[in-house]
Design a protein that fits this description.
The complex is a heterodimer. Chain A is an alpha/beta fold. Helix content of chain A is about 35%, strand content about 25%. In chain B, helix 3 packs across helix 9, helix 6 crosses helix 7 and helix 19 runs antiparallel to helix 20. The chains are: A alpha/beta, B mainly alpha.
Chain lengths: ~240, ~575
C-alpha cells in the first residue's frame, strides 16, 4: 500500500504533537519511526490508523484520502498499539475469528494458524482468556490475529518492547520481512537503535512533532552510534537537528 | 494519617526547581489547567456548576410556592439517595480499580493503610454536602437565632453521616443494585421539584421515609427548637457511630480478604472461554488433570525442578499443545453463531440483521451472547409486581408499585443505549481509547445495529406499555383511550431520544468535548439551536393536540436522526478516539 502523509499536524490543546509532517511510504517498505519520548511517534501511528484525526494536512492510501469513516481503507490496515486492544474474556481463537470477520477476510487456513500458535508457544494457552495472559502473550496473540488478516499496511507501536519473548520477536521479524516481499508496507516505532538499523529499510526520526531525518538505512552509512548521537543532539536545549 | 501519599511541600519545591530550570533552558513546560485539578475533568466541573445553578434557582423559586419547603426537602432526599449510591460506586472504584489501588501493590504500603486512607478520603471528600446542607437548612428555617444555626448545623452534619453510612453499607452490595438506580434517583429528584403541590402532598411522607429524608422531616416539622436540637444531636451521634462502625467493618473484611489472597493459590477461571468440540474436550481433560496436580506445581515453585521433572513438565505442556493443535486444525472455532439456538428476542434481532450486521453485533457484544430475552423476562416480572402493588396496596403505598414499573422499564428497554462491550475503554500509550478504536467498526453500521436491537426490544416491550397504560387509566380515571394516547406520546419521546443515546455511546469514547479548537466555537450556536429545537419538539409531543403532537413526534424523530448523522460526519473526521484518564 502506498502511504502519502501530506503536511499532517496534530494538536492537543496548546501542544503540537505533530507539525506538518510529510512522508511518502512505498509498498514493500519497512519503516521505523524513531524519536525521544513525546516526540510524536505514537501520535503519527494513531493518525495513520484513524484513532486520531489530524488537525491539519491529510493522509492518502493508494491515492485516496483517508479518514475514520473510510471503512474499505481501514480494512486494509491493522494497528497493534503498545497494549493491544482486545476483549479480556476472549481467547486467541475467538480473537482471530473476530478479526477475520471484521476485516472481511476469508477464513484462514487452520493448519497455518496452528503452526503459528505453536511457533509462538501459544498452543497450550489457546483456551485461555486474554485477562489471564501476560502482556507478551496478549501481544503475540494479537500478532496472530494480524497475520490471519494479512493487511496491506501493518502498524506497530513498540513491538520490540511489547513483552514478546525472543521466539515471538523472531516470528514477528520473519513474517514482516516476508510480508514486505509480498508488497505489504509496515510502520513501527522502537527505541532500540540496533534493531532499527538492521531490520528497517527506512528510518524516520521525529522530534517535538517535526520530521528531523528521513533516510533509507545504510544510505549514508549510518551506524547505531550516529543515530544515538543525533537523538541526543536533538534533545539538547536549543537543539533542532 | 495524611490524606495525600506524597509530601505537598516537597512537590512544591520540586516544581519550583523544575520551573527555574525550564526557564533557563527555554523549554516550555506542560501546564495543567486549574479546572483539571483534583482529578476532575473539565467538562464535569462545568456541567456540575451549570446543573447546580439550575437546581438552586429552581429550589429558590419553588420555596416561594405553597408546600414549597416540603417539595424542596423531598427533592433533596431523593438527590441525596442518588448521591449516596454514586459515592458508593466511587468508593468501589477507588478500592478496586483506581490508579492508587493498582500502584499500591508495587510500593511498600500496608493494605490496612491503603484501606484506611481510601475510606478517610471518601469521608473528607463529602465536605461540600455539609456546606450545602447548612445552606439548605438555614433557608428552610425562619430567623437567625443560635437555635436556628444549631439546628441547621446539626441537621447538615447528621445528613452527611447518614450519607456516609449508606455509602459504606451499599458499597459491598453494588453488584445487586441496578446500575441506573443512582441516575433514577437524580431524575426523580428533578421531577419531584416540579411536581404540582396537589400530587406532592400525598407522597411527601414516602419521600421523607428514605433514610436521607429523616433529617429534613425533623427540621421542617413543628416541634419546639429544643426538641429538634436534641433529636438532631442524637442523629449526629447515632449516624456518626454507624458510619464509623460500617467503615471499620468493611476495612477489616477487605483487609482479611487481602490476607487470605496472599496465602491462597489463585485459580484462573478459563471455563468462560471453553470451546466446544471433541478435540477441545480432550484438551480440557488434560487441563483438568493439570488442575488436579496443583500441589505438585506449588512444590515446583519452591524447589528447583530436577532435569527429569523439567522434561516431564515440558512433555505435559507439549501434550496440552497437541490436544489444542487438533482442535485448532479442526477449524470449528471459525464458525458463525447459530442464532437458531438462541432465545426468542435474540432470534428476532438476528432475523432483521444482515450477515454483515450480525458480525458487527457479535463484535459489539464482545463475542458474548446477549441476554435480551432474559432482561425482558425480568422486566415482565418487575411489571407484574408493580401492577400488583398499585392495584392491591393502599393508595399511600402506590409509589412502591410505580418504582417497580420504572424498574421494569429500565430492564426492558436500553434507556441509555444498552451495554456494548466493544465500547469499553482500553489503553493506547497512556490514553483511554474504546476497544473498537483499532478495528474497522463503522459509525453508520454500528449505529444501525444498535438501533435495530433497541427497536426490537421496544417492540417487545409494547404489550407491557399497554398494560401500564391500562393501569394508569384506572388510577388516574382518565379513560383507556386517553391513557393510550399518553402512552403513544411516551413512545414518540422514546423513539426520538434513541438516536441521541446512540450518538452518546460513540461520543463517550472520544475527546470531542475536551480537545476543542478555536473553530469549535462556530459549533456552539449550532449546538444551542439543535438543543432548543429538540426541546421545543419534545415539548410539542408532550402538550400539543393530537395532530400536532404526531407532527412534532415525527419531526423530533427526524431531528434526532439528523443529529445522529451530523455527529457521525464530525466523529469520522474531527475527533480522536483518545481520552485522558479522569
Amino acid at each position: 500500500m502506498r502511504v502519502q502523509i501530506e503536511k499532517v499536524s496534530k494538536r492537543f490543546g496548546r501542544v503540537w504533537a505533530l507539525e506538518e509532517i510529510s512522508l511518502e511510504l512505498q509498498p514493500g517498505q519497512i519503516v521505523c519511526v524513531l524519536g525521544a519520548n513525546g516526540a510524536g511517534k505514537t501520535t503519527l501511528l494513531n493518525c495513520l490508523a484513524g484513532v486520531a484525526a489530524p488537525s491539519g494536512g491529510r493522509i492518502l492510501y493508494d491515492g485516496e484520502v483517508f479518514h475514520r469513516g473510510k471503512l474499505d481503507l481501514r480494512r486494509r490496515l491493522m494497528y497493534l498499539p503498545d497494549f493491544p486492544l482486545a476483549f479480556a474474556r476472549m481467547n486467541v481463537l475467538e480473537h482471530i475469528a473476530m478479526c477475520v470477520r471484521l476485516f472481511e477476510r476469508s477464513d484462514p487456513d487452520p493448519e497455518k494458524v496452528a503452526v503459528l500458535l505453536e511457533q509462538l508457544s501459544l498452543l497450550p494457552l489457546t483456551g485461555m482468556p486474554f485477562s489471564a495472559m501476560s502482556r507478551g502473550q496478549v501481544y503475540k496473540s494479537a500478532l496472530v490475529g494480524l497475520l490471519a488478516v494479512d493487511p496491506d499496511l501493518w502498524i506497530f507501536d513498540e513491538p520490540l518492547a511489547s513483552g514478546m519473548d525472543p521466539m515471538g520477536i523472531a516470528v514477528f521479524k520473519k513474517e514482516a520481512r516476508e510480508a514486505a516481499r509480498r508488497g505489504k508496507t509496515m510502520v513501527f516505532t522502537t527505541q532500540i537503535l540496533e534493531i532499527a538499523e538492521k531490520f528497517a529499510d527506512r528510518i524516520c526520526v521525529l522530534d517535538h512533532g517535526g520530521l528531523r531525518l528521513d533516510r533509507r538505512t545504510g544510505e549514508r552509512g549510518e551506524k547505531e552510534s550516529e543515530l544515538e548521537e543525533l537523538l541526543l543532539k536533538l534533545r539538547e536545549p536549543g537543539g533542532n537537528g | 494519617m495524611r490524606l495525600r501519599w506524597y509530601d505537598a511541600a516537597l512537590v512544591r519545591r520540586l516544581r519550583r526547581a523544575v520551573k527555574e530550570r525550564a526557564e533557563r533552558s527555554g523549554v516550555k513546560g506542560y501546564q495543567r489547567r486549574w479546572w483539571r485539578a483534583s482529578g476532575t475533568s473539565g467538562r464535569n466541573v462545568f456541567l456540575l456548576l451549570w446543573l447546580s445553578t439550575i437546581a438552586i434557582r429552581a429550589m429558590v423559586e419553588r420555596l416561594g410556592q405553597p408546600m414549597g419547603a416540603d417539595v424542596v426537602t423531598g427533592s433533596v432526599s431523593l438527590a441525596l439517595a442518588g448521591i449516596a449510591l454514586q459515592r458508593a460506586k466511587q468508593l468501589r472504584k477507588a478500592l478496586a480499580l483506581s490508579f492508587e489501588r493498582v500502584h499500591s501493590y508495587f510500593y511498600p504500603v500496608a493494605e490496612t493503610e491503603f484501606l484506611d486512607r481510601t475510606f478517610l478520603r471518601s469521608a473528607v471528600s463529602a465536605w461540600w454536602l455539609l456546606a450545602a446542607g447548612l445552606a439548605l437548612f438555614m433557608v428552610l428555617q425562619e430567623g437567625n437565632s443560635v437555635a436556628v444555626w444549631a439546628t441547621a448545623a446539626l441537621a447538615a452534619l447528621a445528613d452527611v453521616f447518614m450519607v456516609l453510612s449508606l455509602v459504606y453499607a451499599l458499597e459491598e452490595h453494588l453488584d445487586v443494585i441496578p446500575r441506573w438506580l443512582a441516575l433514577g434517583f437524580f431524575g426523580m429528584a428533578a421531577l419531584w421539584l416540579f411536581t404540582p403541590s396537589q400530587y406532592a402532598m400525598g407522597q411527601q411522607s414516602w419521600v421523607n421515609a428514605l433514610p436521607t429524608g429523616w433529617m429534613n422531616w425533623v427540621v421542617t416539622n413543628r416541634w419546639p427548637a429544643e426538641s429538634k436540637i436534641v433529636a438532631l444531636t442524637a442523629g449526629v451521634v447515632v449516624f456518626g457511630a454507624t458510619a464509623w462502625m460500617l467503615a471499620r467493618r468493611r476495612c477489616a473484611k477487605l483487609a482479611g480478604d487481602f490476607e487470605r489472597s496472599l496465602s491462597t493459590e489463585q485459580e484462573i477461571d478459563v471455563t468462560q472461554s471453553e470451546p466446544t468440540g471433541e478435540g477441545a474436550g480432550a484438551a480440557w481433560k488434560v487441563l483438568d488433570e493439570e488442575m488436579e496436580d496443583k500441589g505438585e506445581e506449588l512444590d515446583a515453585e519452591v524447589v528447583q525442578p530436577l532435569p527429569l521433572q523439567a522434561t516431564w513438565q515440558r512433555q505435559r505442556i507439549a501434550t496440552i499443545g497437541s490436544e489444542w493443535g487438533q482442535y485448532v486444525r479442526g477449524g470449528e472455532w471459525l464458525g458463525e453463531w447459530d442464532w437458531r439456538q438462541m432465545p426468542w428476542l435474540e432470534r428476532v434481532v438476528a432475523w432483521w440483521l444482515s450477515k454483515e450486521e450480525k458480525e458487527t453485533l457479535r463484535f459489539l457484544t464482545g463475542g458474548r451472547v446477549p441476554q435480551w430475552s432474559n432482561a425482558w423476562k425480568n422486566s415482565v416480572i418487575a411489571l407484574a409486581v408493580g401492577v400488583l402493588l398499585v392495584v392491591v396496596v393502599p393508595s399511600d403505598w402506590r409509589i412502591l408499585g410505580v418504582l417497580a414499573i420504572f424498574v421494569s422499564l429500565g430492564l426492558g428497554l436500553p434507556l441509555l443505549g444498552g451495554r456494548w462491550m466493544a465500547m469499553d475503554p482500553g489503553w493506547i500509550s497512556g490514553k483511554l481509547s474504546p476497544l473498537y478504536g483499532v478495528y474497522p467498526l463503522g459509525y453508520g453500521r454500528a449505529g444501525r445495529v444498535m438501533a435495530k436491537v433497541a427497536l426490537v426490544r421496544t417492540a417487545a416491550w409494547l404489550p407491557l406499555l399497554v398494560v401500564v397504560a391500562v393501569v394508569n387509566a384506572v388510577l388516574q380515571n382518565v379513560g383507556i383511550a386517553g391513557s393510550m394516547w399518553q402512552a403513544a406520546r411516551a413512545l414518540m419521546l422514546w423513539l426520538s431520544w434513541l438516536p441521541i443515546t446512540l450518538l452518546g455511546k460513540f461520543s463517550k469514547g472520544t475527546n470531542d468535548t475536551t480537545n476543542l479548537r478555536p473553530s469549535s466555537v462556530l459549533l456552539v450556536p449550532i449546538l444551542i439551536a439543535a438543543i432548543v429545537a429538540m426541546a421545543i419538539l419534545w415539548g410539542g409531543v408532550l402538550v400539543a393536540e393530537s395532530g400536532w403532537a404526531l407532527a412534532a413526534g415525527a419531526a423530533a424523530i427526524a431531528g434526532s436522526v439528523g443529529c445522529w448523522a451530523a455527529y457521525g460526519w464530525w466523529y469520522n473526521r474531527k475527533v480522536d478516539l483518545l481520552r485522558d484518564r479522569e
